[in-house]
Amino acid sequence: MKKVLIFEGGWDGHEPKLVSARFGRLMEQAGYQVDIVHDQQYLEDLETLMTYDLIIPCWTMGEISREAVTNISKAVGSGVGLAGCHGGMCDAFRQNTEWQFITGGQWVSHPGGDGQEYMVNICHGSSPITQGLEDFPVCSEHYYLHIDPAIEVLATTRFPLVHYYHISNKPVDMPVAWTKYWGNGRVFYCSLGHHDDVFDKSPNAQELMRRGMLWAAEGCALAREQGLTTERFENTAKMY
Question: What is the CATH T-level fold of the domain 3-233, as seen in this structure?
Answer without folding.
Answer: Rossmann fold (3.40.50)
